[in-house]
Specification:
By secondary structure, this protein is of the alpha/beta class. It contains ten helices and eleven strands. The strands form three sheets. It has a six-stranded parallel β-sheet. Helix 1 (about 10-30) runs parallel beside helix 10, helix 2 (about 45-60) packs across helix 10 (about 275-290) and helix 6 (about 140-150) packs across helix 7 (about 170-180). The longest helix is centred in the N-terminal third of the chain and has 21 residues, at about 10-30. The chain is globular, with a radius of gyration of 19 Å. The termini are far apart. The structure holds guanine. Guanine (GUN) binds near residues 95, 98, 141 and 169.
């Protein structure tokens, strides 16, 4: 079997068109969705993410308040900026790019963001609401993964989903969302991680495999069963002297080999990546809608 490719770029494009229509309706009511973006320091991957987010906002009509702060910004200065954005009625969502420099307490900053503007879904209040199945801003990458599955007509209910990776940004939340008693959940979920004794014992049982370990090509063809649906969340830079930038992006899945056994698979790039930003835009528009009726 050769897998059908899940085209994350096309699905993200479709969702962005839907959001554009919603934004036009909001603008007619005098509401312009606004996102406050804060980047501390110059980590190249973070600069690249943040620039893409800002461009995506502009492209669909979201006002983006961009703040690039030097790496030696104090925790207090950062908290003061978050506080200003919490109080600014033009801003419906706040995004503080992670990771933050070591001298800043990340948890303290995430806690300072108003849960009503936490479009990343990282505030403990939103994490708690997600876990108990209440309405909340859902974290963007896991929510994007679920949208990819739904829009590719993959049956989640009753499926055995194996998640490889237990990060707070992807592994733990995606597993949580998939076990919820909801149409977007009802899966049987196994989480594998660095201390799992025999990862392939579990991955071979997966109907849906979500790779979010951050290890290039760790999922090989012998680790999956025929017909598996594979979602590759990994974004790893590997040296490539033939590439213009000197590196290329690869996922956590050995794509060329695994696609010969899978029924559906996401590529890297062009799979989960475009969905993460789309779900951020989605949360920002949701927040603007909620604020507009308050
Ligand atoms: N760093 C890597 N992914 C993310 C994300 O989704 N949101 C934020 N704020 N930082 C990140």
């Amino acid at each position: 079997m050769t897998a059908k490719i899940i085209d994350g770029k096309a699905i993200a494009e479709q969702m962005r068109l839907e959001l554009k229509d919603e934004i036009a309706i909001l603008r007619d009511k005098g509401i312009v969705p606004g996102l406050g973006v804060i980047l501390v320091g110059e980590d190249p991957a973070s600069v690249s993410y943040v620039s893409s987010k800002e461009k995506a906002c502009r492209d669909i009509g979201i006002f983006s308040d961009d703040n690039r702060l030097p790496a030696d910004t104090s925790e207090q200065e950062l908290l003061a900026l978050v506080d200003r954005m919490n109080k600014d009625p033009k801003i419906h969502g706040i995004l503080v790019q992670l990771p933050l420099p070591k001298h800043i307490d990340e948890n303290k900053v995430l806690l300072a963001i108003s849960p009503e503007k936490d479009v990343d879904g990282f505030h403990p209040i939103n994490v708690g609401k997600m876990v108990v199945g209440e309405d909340a801003f859902l974290p963007c990458t896991p929510h994007g993964v679920i949208q990819l599955l739904l829009r590719s007509k993959v049956k989640i209910s009753g499926a055995h989903v194996v998640v490889v990776g237990r990060s707070n940004i992807v592994g733990k939340p995606v597993a949580n969302m998939l076990v919820q008693k909801k149409d977007t959940g009802n899966a049987t979920v196994t989480i594998c991680h660095t201390r799992t004794q025999d990862i392939s014992y579990f991955t071979k049982q997966a109907d849906i495999l979500i790779a979010a370990a951050g290890k290039p090509n760790m999922i090989t063809a012998d680790m999956v069963k025929d017909g598996v649906v594979v979602i590759d969340v990994g974004v790893n830079r590997v040296d490539d002297p033939t590439a213009k930038k000197g590196y290329r992006l690869v996922g956590d899945v050995d794509f060329d080999a695994v696609k010969e056994k899978a029924s559906l698979i996401t590529p890297v790039p062009g799979g989960v990546g475009p969905m993460t930003i789309t779900m951020l835009l989605y949360n920002t528009v949701r927040s603007a809608v909620i604020h507009s009726v308050l």
